Amino acid sequence: MARLFVLPYLVITILDGHWRLAFALLWLAGVSDGFDGLLARKLHQRTTLGLYLDPIADKLLMSTMFLVLTHVGVIPRYVTVLVFSRDLGILLIATLLFATNTLRDFRPSLLGKINTVIQILGVLTVMTCQVIPRAGLNDLKALLLWSIALLAPVSAAEYAWIVLKRMQTPHTPQGPTVTAD
Description:
- By secondary structure, the protein is an all-alpha fold.
- Helices cover 78% and strands 0% of the residues.
- It starts with a helix and ends in a 13-residue tail after the last helix.
């Protein structure tokens, strides 16, 4: 919930150009996510609400960051368009397959997880460059943004391939499986 509460303030601080505060809020959101996951594992507490809310909060935070950082001109539009196209495509296919009871297992692939890690590192690096402008960081930012632009469509294609393979294999319908990607 902390990520969801921090999000509007994060957007406002970025739009107002208060990069240090925005950077601190982003770290607060990230640390709360990590702490929440650590506590849930340590205390063996898993709830249905948490199963759904955690990936929603993660995706909402990342999607909002891409949109806002593109709006203020620190992430190129093409990167955000590729990220959103991938996510929207996966969401539409997963929803259709789930609703038709065709396939209900949407575990993230290794490439999907790598894509997510690169996106997180990319957003963190973009924010860091706004707070600590350094040539080396700008080179890293460019490399990460290029990697995101490359991985997003490749990861989407991999998900499509995995879904096609799973649909061709006989399976037993099962309950919902929700994971973060």
